[in-house]
Amino acid sequence: MDIALETEQLGKRYGRRWALQDCSFRLPAGRIVGLVGPNGAGKSTLLHLAVGLLQPDAGEVRIFGRSPYDNPATLPDIGFVAQDTPLYRDFTAAELVQLGGRMNVRWDAALARERLAQLGIPPKLPVGRLSGGQRAQVALALALAKRPRLLLLDEPVASLDPLARREFLQSLMGSVTDSGTTVLLSSHLLADLERTCDHLVVLHSSRVRLAGAVDDLVDAHRQLVGPRHVGETIAGVGTVVRARHTERQSTLLARIDGVVDPEWTVHDVTLEDVILAYLADGETTVARTDWEVPA
Amino acid sequence: MIWLTWRQHRRQALFTLVGLVALAALMIPTGLMMRASYADKGLAECLRVLNAAQPDPERARLCNRALNQFADRFDSMSLIGVLFLVLPLIVGLFWGAPLVAREVEQGTHRFAWTQGVGRRQWALVKFGFVAVVAVIVAVVYGLGMSWWATPLTGAAQQSRFDVIFFDMQGIAPIGYTLFAIALGVCAGVHWPRMMPAMAVTLGGFVGLRILLTVVARPHYLPPETRTIPIQGTIGEPGGALGDWILEKGIRNAGGRMVLSDAQAACSGAAGPAGGKCPPIVEFGEGAYNWQLYQPADRFWLFQGIESGIFVALAAVLLYLALRGIRRVA
């Protein structure tokens, strides 16, 4: 299977703080991958490493087998839309399409024009005067016009209202499903990703908590309700991701690896349940000491 | 890439052009006026008269009057010249510093550097573009100012080495302008915020210019010394016109400096005009005027050295900027 993006022990440090650490995963080509995590989890750092804007401080990242940092040869394969969709605000959309043609080897200007026409984006207006949603669409159209094999989108819908958000994601899906483009899009909102992604990477506190195909992840986890659990092993349960206890019973979200002890009632989980369970297990102790608040 | 650079900076280029045209509209008429007046009064001939070994007193009197008239009328013009001292700095602040800093501040570097061309090529084209524009602007105004300032320096019997006059004309401004731009670019790469980059450019440019002007420029070449016997009564005993006098004083027969920053001549009554006069008691027998100077004909050599230093510094800064741009996140 073709690997679009692969990281190995990847790490990036700002001063003494690690923004990303021990990051290892593989994204098979052709997937729509969601990169989830709260603000500050390291999502942008990971994407900037992947597109070669940043140099790794540890480990490696490879795009179709090549390291992207200081290597313009990887650029034609990657379409990138940075957070807040930065574009030259005094350029018109038409000029940006023209610009893309001059700065790229492979450039499908017709594709960009057709998309922008379909979306009713005015070509002669400086993009600084477009709405946030329109600007995001322009940025996406420019990224798609490169005909990239890997499309990286950093919080593409964060600044959009719910309607524009849905439209954006729909138009994104419409354009990548046929071409076989691998998409990695980050968001701190689960709802955005649930409908669109078939693969998931969960980042929290600069580490990868979970990575895999959505179906596998949902299949592998169950919610268990049973007698109060104090850490003993349960038959059929691999790891307990999160546990909540009342006086007499415990509710666990766990990765299962066989038939579960019949003493426990087993429920199916949604993707959201799984992600929330992994995100809840964050490191708040550091913040507590920083704030001089007792844990 | 070139299209992007042009499209992005065409407004800046237009402003620069408008500024230059406005300056030309000020400088060309005043320059022509000064030249016309200079020729009318026959000042070129006058300077030869005054500079002769034995000036004819009557002609010298008339000439001095003409020179004073010219100076009264045009002396304030040299204030306009000061404007041109800050021109390289303005170019550095508004062309150099924002080149990378503005992109990073607005996040557009993430767009520009993830298109098909790498950031190194982006930087080469951009830096090249502003450098070429800067050189063109500097050549035009440096040589233009040489033309403009010639009657002023001539009539004032000043040296072209004088601090303001040396700095605003010739080829030195090319070095200054390139250096200011390179400093701005480099500051913007290593501290990619507009305000800090502009502040570094301002401080660095002014600081280094003052330092080199005061400390280094007098020593680009070993200065020459000249001794002039105390004789004659007209004005200060001079050497050749336009020399850059670094130090002067009166030394006694033994060569010891008895009075610095001064030159002596005979008092009118003491002896015949132009002849030797009896020794001045204060300095003793055999005292003489002494000067340490850079000859006037070294002007273009000094311009070349000054410009060369700043061009070399600019090259180093641009190299550092090209290296540093790989680490801009």
Fold and architecture overview:
- The complex is a heterodimer of chains A (295) and B (329).
- Chain A contains nine helices and 13 strands.
- Chain A has two domains: 202 residues, Rossmann fold, CATH 3.40.50.300; 70 residues, no CATH class.
- Chain A is an alpha/beta fold and 295 residues long.
- In chain A, helix 3 runs antiparallel to helix 4 and helix 4 packs parallel to helix 5.
- Chain A starts with a strand and ends in a 5-residue tail after the last helix.
- Chain A has a six-stranded mixed β-sheet with strand order 5-6-7-3-8-9, with helices on both faces. In chain A, strands 11-12-10-13 form a four-stranded antiparallel β-sheet. Chain A has a three-stranded antiparallel β-sheet with strand order 2-1-4, with helices on one face.
- Helix content of chain A is 29%, strand content 30%.
- With 329 residues, chain B is of the alpha+beta class.
- Chain B has two domains: 248 residues, no CATH class; 74 residues, no CATH class.
- Chain B contains eleven helices and four strands.
- Chain B has a four-stranded antiparallel β-sheet, with no helix packed on it.
- In chain B, helix 9 runs parallel beside helix 11.
- Classes of the chains: A alpha/beta (295), B alpha+beta (329).
- Chains A and B meet through helix 2 of A and helix 1 and helix 6 of B.
Any chance you could write out the topology, listing elements then pairs?
The complex is a heterodimer of chains A (295) and B (329).
Chain A: E1 3-14, E2 17-28, E3 32-36, H1 43-51, E4 58-63, E5 78-81, H2 93-103, H3 109-118, H4 132-145, E6 150-153, H5 162-176, E7 182-187, H6 190-194, E8 199-204, E9 207-213, H7 214-220, E10 221-227, E11 237-245, E12 249-256, E13 265-267, H8 271-280, H9 285-290
Chain B: H1 2-40, H2 43-51, H3 57-74, H4 77-96, H5 98-106, H6 109-112, H7 119-155, H8 163-168, H9 172-190, H10 194-216, E1 224-229, E2 244-251, E3 257-260, E4 288-294, H11 299-324
Helix pairs in contact in B: 1-7, 2-3, 4-7, 4-9, 4-10, 5-9, 7-9, 9-10, 9-11
